[in-house]
Amino acid sequence: MEKDFDAIVVGAGFGGIYMSKKLIDQGLSVKVIEAASDVGGTWYWNRYPGAMSDTGSHLYRYSWDLDDLRQYPWERTYVRQAEVLAYLQHVVTRHRLRQYMEFDTEVISADWDDSSDLWVIQTSTGQKLAAKYLVTAVGLLSRQNFPNYPGIGQFKGELYHTGSWPKTHDFKGKRVGVIGSGSTGVQVITALADEVKHLLCFQRTPQYVVPSGDVVATPEYRKEINDSYEDIWKQAKNSQFAFGFEESKNPTMSVSSEEREKIFEEAWQQGNGFRFMFGTFCDISYDEEANKEAADFIRRKIRATVRDPVKASKLIPTDYYARRPLCDTGYYQKFNRDNVDIVDIKEVPITHFTEKGIVTSDGTEHELDVVICATGFEAVDGNYTRIPIRGRKGVTLKERWAGGPSSYLGVSVPDYPNLFMILGPNGPFTNLPPTIETQVEFISDLISHANNQAPALINGTKRPVVEATVEAEEKWTDLCDKMSANSLFRKGDSWIFGANVPGKKHSVLFYFGGLGNYRMVLDDVIRAGYKGFLGY
């Protein structure tokens, strides 16, 4: 079989765009396959009202084009969906990458052919393509977790999932129900509260939400960022979460209660969920006493903000402060409006849909014109189990991961030669663009090294064949398990461990060692001659 391309990249979001550029710069022939009609990935599909990054505008972009970093405009300290999408479109145009991309095309299957050492990809447009390398940039949060309530198909009103939002909507004068109160639910509820006739939040789990601190970016602030961009990126890439702040090294109980309150208040006023959880003290995520101090502070803020005690009691979390840290632009304040209310679906679960709306277990029929499912995604491995990707033994990744997904470094899987994943299982839990850059650069360097060493690789093949060893995968999986063992995150029902998908086995999906440590691990792998990969 003859190859059509050196590499096929699946996905044209942050990862796919940079991956294609790096490989094209190596002189390789590259095809990017994207299901959407344009670039953007997550930011193409998630057009729901209020969609916003919780990373500072200056860091939610690529670091490798310093001139563009300093010149490209952004108006506020946090970027909205439309701005991220426009930025990615700009990057593709600036670097002339669109010619390598094919849109409105899905990968139907991908099979490794041992006789030719090529990946054979079938697409929704009827193409059969062969490539040396298959790089998946399908995103962490892209496979929708759509609820399957009885009768949902009978509902006569409008039904949406936030992960596949229409290009336009008009909810003025309508009764709107939102199922879910995670990051997406918080954003869409905040954005819609002022425009709809009635907004009903169907909440399973109340959240700890910190203000974002989003403000207009003044010319002085932008100049300060531009003048120090190189140092900013150096700090971010060598920190734990890459959010642009110094993570605290001080335990919560190492200071007096008065000092603790002052530190929490300063972080609350400054904004950002990650900064509040990890920039105040070092032990909130794993020490129960420390966690309670932070949780109690946020609970007091909720009581002080929400005037209706009944609404406030429903909004106040009772479990650990141990989910993905959230931030908002006025979430709790919206519940002071008369047209915004909550249904606690742990107390009165949704039983079924009717033509008119949603029925809960107390027999109440909530009549609605619009239902929005802010129910999240089957994170990390969801898209890999949707597409049949078969390795050298003919086994799909879905079958191989039946007991829980695993990989080496979040990048490679044994028996799947020349398959590289961006943001695969057990990659770092961090701000995503810096992690994506880190993995793209590692993968592109590994491919370059493999191409240069091709004659000496395994089985005497003249084609470069690269895959992780079983031993390396097992050690990495064990490390990820041990690093998360003491985390309070592991004790909650969080998508971070797959707990948001009914019937899915809870498993470790991330490396909790931080981006700085992860980058050091990758450096060690390279210095040791790509330790953990067959053929090296």
From TrEMBL:
InterPro entries attached to this UniProt entry: FAD-binding_Monooxygenases, FAD/NAD-bd_sf, Flavin_mOase-like
Keyword match Membrane: no
GO molecular function, one term: flavin adenine dinucleotide binding
UniProt keyword list: FAD, Flavoprotein, NADP, Oxidoreductase
Protein name in the entry: Cyclohexanone monooxygenase
Organism the protein comes from: Pseudogymnoascus verrucosus
